[in-house]
Design a protein that fits this description.
Blueprint: H1 2-13, E1 16-26, E2 36-42, E3 65-67, H2 68-77, E4 82-86, H3 96-104, E5 108-113, E6 125-128, H4 138-141, E7 146-151, H5 156-164, E8 172-177, H6 182-195, E9 200-201, H7 205-208
Parallel strand pairs: 2-4, 4-5, 5-6, 6-7, 7-8, 8-9
Antiparallel strand pairs: 1-2, 1-3
Helix pairs in contact: 2-3
């Protein structure tokens, strides 16, 4: 019981995290496509999109708590000075300590979030991917560098425009086909971007390259 209480304390402080996986790869989607980065996937999600391709990340209890110091040590060993924090929904956790320690080592921090939880951490780049089931908190719109909307069907274009009206003026606007429906959605997205050139197309290029 004492050990569990201590773990909860460390989790709340961000000194332990339910790490699902961590690996060194190439960013496959969004504005930073093609760049090498260390990826840290944190378990636990409060949104649960039906088309999510990492549903195993939803239940944080499946992933044992890992020392944040150990994670930082792993990140330091990779050739790139960039780390992408993803999930699940990573903002379910306090990421202040993780980011502070990484920034002190001159490692750039990139966040991928649905925006459904309070923002913590210090970020060089925030990719906001809003979900209808649990819309972003208003504050995250002011911090986003990239608004990436997943297009699963034709109704998602209206959802994209709703979010584009809320985003800050510097944020990039991207439309990305949901992978399982990419063949149906890509022609629609191409046509939409041609008519609305403020938007940029994002593809999950890592899946085409067969890399993590």
């Amino acid at each position: 019981m004492i050990e569990n209480e201590e773990n909860i304390k460390l989790l709340n402080e961000g000194r332990m995290l339910p790490v699902m996986e961590e690996f060194y790869s190439i960013q496959g989607e969004g504005h930073n496509t093609g760049q090498a980065a260390y990826f840290l996937r944190i378990g636990g999600c409060d949104v649960g999109c039906h088309w999510c391709d990492v549903k195993e990340s939803w239940n944080a209890d499946l992933w044992p708590l890992s020392s944040t110091e150990a994670v930082i040590s792993n990140i330091e060993k990779c050739p790139s000075n960039a780390v992408v924090i993803t999930g699940g929904e990573p903002l379910q956790y306090n990421l202040d300590y993780l980011c502070r320690e990484l920034k002190s080592r001159n490692i750039r921090c990139f966040l991928e979030t649905s925006g459904s939880c309070k923002l913590s951490g210090e970020w060089d780049w925030i990719c906001l991917s809003p979900k209808k089931k649990s819309p972003p908190l208003p504050f995250i719109y002011t911090k986003s560098d990239e608004l990436k909307v997943i297009i699963h069907d034709g109704s998602d274009f209206a959802w994209a425009e709703e979010n584009a009206e809320l985003i800050n003026g510097k944020s990039l606007l991207l439309l990305q086909p949901e992978w399982s429906r990419r063949r149906e959605m890509i022609p629609l997205i191409v046509d939409y971007v041609l008519k609305n050139p403020k938007w940029i197309i994002s593809l999950q290029s890592h899946k085409y390259m067969n890399i993590p």
